[in-house]
Design goal:
The protein is 26% helix and 17% strand. The chain is α+β, with helices and mostly antiparallel strands. The strands form two sheets. A seven-stranded mixed β-sheet has the order 1-2-3-6-4-5-7. It comes from Succiniclasticum ruminis DSM 9236.
């Protein structure tokens, strides 16, 4: 007997053999390949023939002024050539720099023609804008091209699969923010006597095929996307000197909590070098997460460290 939710296989390949290099993501029985190319490795990717084909791409980065994560949605008949050209947001006094490109290309020539990639560009822009997880940097609204009913169904099926695979890249751009509507303020109530902690359900842990960094970042993103919010006590612990003492014993992660209006760019380089670029948000808290716990070739930096901590979160 099969369960209602069938297992889906996603193959993740580290093309450079390192967690900070290029990635390939392949979904079982899908005619689309997904690539993650860091900006710093773009020039070295010219020899990937598949990048010289038609496709859709999403550029991710962090705003230099507000520190908010952004996305740009584009299409091209030669992805590599287009990525080496300046986009509107990369020009002018307030220019931004993208960090990673997520690229979707067809395995077989002709599967994605100009009309189809224009349709996907328009729909990706539409979905990302509605999700409101990232600032969408497109200067103009892409037009959704006219397709036959058969091709529309095929492209919408592609979009469904893209929604499955995008979170594994670390960029869950198409999932609407569960906390986009703030709850109404309530009058504070007297604190009750301490009882046993509330048991909460957590989303499943990420695929074990991910490297330690992607595994931890994806796990934390999935947790926050599920609506989980860290309590004040938790934030004080993970972002304090006391918390850092526990970190040395691999019991806790370390957070760098940003002050009101503070951006990652405002921090000293000695801090930013040790924390991931992504700014996470839990309720009113904005914070960075210490990266060196999860990097390869560092003593104790195993995914089991994250698992052990994660499992303590079931009781709040």
């Amino acid at each position: 007997m099969h369960s209602e939710s069938e297992a889906i296989g996603i193959t993740v390949t580290l093309l450079d053999g390192t967690i900070d290099g290029r990635y390939e993501y392949r979904l079982d029985s899908w005619n689309i390949d997904v690539y993650k190319i860091p900006h710093k490795l773009l020039k070295e990717s010219d020899n990937y023939k598949v990048l010289h084909t038609p496709g859709v791409y999403l550029l991710f980065g962090e705003e230099t002024t507000e520190g908010a994560p952004f996305v740009y949605v584009g299409e091209a008949e030669d992805i590599y050539v287009r990525l080496n050209q300046k986009h509107t947001f990369e020009k002018g006094a307030n220019k931004e720099v993208w960090d990673d490109a997520i690229i979707l290309v067809a395995l077989s020539a002709g599967d994605l023609d100009k009309a189809k990639i224009k349709y996907l560009e328009g729909r990706f822009y539409e979905i990302a804008s509605e999700a409101k997880r990232f600032v969408v940097k497109n200067g103009n609204t892409p037009k959704i091209s006219q397709l036959s009913k058969q091709n529309i169904n095929a492209m919408e099926n592609l979009i469904k699969k893209a929604k499955l695979i995008l979170p594994t890249t670390g960029y869950d751009v198409f999932t609407a923010k569960s906390d986009s509507v703030k709850p109404p303020k309530v009058q504070p109530q007297p604190k009750p006597k301490k009882k046993q902690g509330k048991i909460v359900d957590l989303p499943p842990l990420p695929s074990k095929e991910l490297g330690p960094c992607e595994y931890a970042k994806t796990g934390l993103e999935n947790l926050l996307n599920s609506g989980y919010t860290f309590s004040e006590a938790q934030m004080k612990r993970y972002g304090s000197i006391e918390g850092s003492k526990d970190f040395t014993h691999r019991n806790n992660p370390m957070f760098w909590v940003l002050k009101n209006g503070e951006k990652r760019a405002d921090l000293d380089k000695t801090i930013t070098d040790r924390y991931w670029a992504k700014v996470f948000q839990s309720g009113e808290y904005r914070f960075l997460m210490f990266s060196q716990w999860y990097k390869d070739n560092i003593s104790g930096s195993h995914k089991s460290d994250f698992d052990n901590w994660y499992n303590t979160l079931t009781e709040k």
